[in-house]
Amino acid sequence: MAGGILEGKKVVISGGSSGIGASIAERFASEGADIWVAGGSSAEGLQKSIAACAAHGVKASGALYDLSDSRNAATLVKEGAEYHGGLDILVNSAGTRNLSAFVDIEDEAIDLLFEVNAKSAFFASREAARIMVPQGSGHILMIGSDAGEHGTPNFSLYGVTKATMHALTKNLAIELGPSGLRVNCMAMGPVRSGRVKEMLENDPEFYKSRINKIPIRDFGLPEHIADTALFIVSPSNNFMSGAIVMIDGGITAG
């Protein structure tokens, strides 16, 4: 696509083979960005996301990475930058959930969520910064959660790992801003995507417990999240950095 607002931008997206990450990848591609899709375990989902991006006439490829070892996040950024011959935008979208009661959380779950949600974002962002700082420009966008900004029963592990991403956003915005980088975070409430979509559709009690906490009485859609992501990294939004952008239907307004 010629003439898009991200034309020629080189983008790496973790968690890009499904859900919000895949929607962001395709939205960025529709505006001319070349995309490296870093997926998790689904080869089918990865190829579907790559094909959706390539359909917009941009350069698109990717690979699967096991982020239960968070150091692989550095590898995915390196390989994406090698594919592109540079890097302009990193989207840290990879994530996993555990909604167990606090006393029931297993040791393995603690390790997994910190590896995937928190440490992977750290390793990926550090690798991106090593590329972006010398060139004096770049965007890092974290995909956080409203759970990182307020307490909710059974969300303690997930919320703490997302809060880590929020804190990382603010620290990197301060440290990397003088080098020309912009670092921001989108913090979503319930979005009809992936596992949450399944729970909303198949668990009436979960649906009721969530919808009643949303002032606008509606859930987010991946394509709406992708539109906001596009605005955040767009040239018209040059002055935003260090922001935790709440996209939660008003949940955290109270």
Helix-strand blueprint:
Elements: E1 10-14, H1 19-30, E2 34-39, H2 43-54, E3 60-64, H3 72-84, E4 89-92, H4 107-135, E5 138-145, H5 156-176, E6 181-188, H6 194-202, H7 204-211, H8 222-233, E7 244-247
Parallel strand pairs: 1-2, 1-4, 2-3, 4-5, 5-6, 6-7
Report on this model:
With 254 residues, the chain is an alpha/beta fold. Helix content is 46%, strand content 16%. The protein contains 8 helices and 7 strands. The protein has helices at residues 19-30, 43-54, 72-84, 107-135, 156-176, 194-202, 204-211, 222-233, and strands at 10-14, 34-39, 60-64, 89-92, 138-145, 181-188, 244-247. It has a 7-stranded parallel β-sheet with strand order 3-2-1-4-5-6-7, with helices on both faces. Helix 1 (19-30) links the parallel strand 1 (10-14) and strand 2 (34-39). Helix 1 (19-30) packs parallel to helix 2 (43-54), helix 1 packs across helix 8 and helix 4 runs parallel beside helix 5 (156-176). The N and C termini lie far apart (42 Å). The mean pLDDT is 94.
Run of helices and strands: EHEHEHEHEHEHHHE
Shape: globular
What is the number of beta strands? Answer: 7
**How would you sum up the major sheet?**
7 strands, parallel
Tell me the fraction of residues in β-strands, as a range.
15-25%
Range of helix content: 40-55%
Q: Mean of residue pLDDT?
A: 94
Count, helices: 8
How far apart are the first and last residues' alpha carbons, in Å?
42 Å
The class by helix and strand makeup works out as: alpha/beta
Output the strand order for the largest sheet. Answer: 3-2-1-4-5-6-7
Task: Please state the CA-atom Rg, rounded to the nearest Å.
Answer: 17 Å
Which residue ranges are poorly predicted, with pLDDT under 50 across at least 5 consecutive positions? Answer: none
